[in-house]
């Protein structure tokens, strides 16, 4: 989930109780700089999808806790949203939940001359993702070697 930056580690204990108390799942948390601005992005989900009200509630409650604790020195923009239809898979529970779904895997280093793969999530165990492509080819990737794993968007 959180990539491990100090800021993310400071925000996580403030955020997790808010998410849990509101019956939501914390999908991801990131603190990134884009251009001149810093962004604190929170991605939440729940069965049936999140609403604007869910995002607003988490944003308001987190702002209150952040104002009191003041864990971030620089100015930032807080964004709370759903993970979208191309939801990232990061936790073991994500891989179990979406077993059998079509996923997109992007690697840091090429494997068999490729950095991108798409196929059915055939399994996940001990940090190893098993993907089966449409032609029946099976590939295994360690989670640490993946740049991203997302649900595929297929039209």
From TrEMBL:
The keyword Translocase does not apply. The keyword Cytoplasm applies. Residues 14-86 form the Ribosome maturation factor RimP N-terminal domain. Its main location: cytoplasm. It comes from the Bacteria. Pfam families: DUF150_C (PF17384), RimP_N (PF02576). Keywords: Cytoplasm, Ribosome biogenesis. PANTHER family: RIBOSOME MATURATION FACTOR RIMP. Belongs to the RimP family. Required for maturation of 30S ribosomal subunits. This is Ribosome maturation factor RimP. It comes from Anaerotignum lactatifermentans. The lineage of its organism: Bacteria, Bacillati, Bacillota, Clostridia, Lachnospirales. The gene is rimP.
């Amino acid at each position: 989930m959180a990539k491990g930056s100090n800021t993310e580690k400071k925000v996580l204990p403030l955020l997790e109780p808010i998410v849990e108390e509101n019956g939501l799942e914390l999908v991801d948390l990131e603190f990134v700089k884009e251009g001149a601005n810093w962004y604190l992005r929170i991605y939440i989900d729940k069965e049936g999808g999140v609403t604007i009200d869910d995002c607003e509630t988490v944003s308001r409650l987190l702002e209150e806790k952040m104002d009191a604790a003041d864990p971030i020195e620089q100015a930032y923009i807080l964004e709370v949203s759903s993970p979208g239809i191309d939801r990232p898979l990061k936790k073991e529970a994500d891989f179990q939940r979406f077993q059998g779904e079509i996923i997109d895997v992007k690697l840091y280093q090429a494997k068999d001359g490729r950095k991108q793969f798409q196929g059915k999530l055939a399994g996940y165990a001990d940090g190893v993702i098993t993907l089966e492509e449409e032609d029946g080819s099976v590939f295994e990737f360690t989670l640490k070697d993946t740049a991203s794993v997302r649900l595929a968007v297929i039209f």
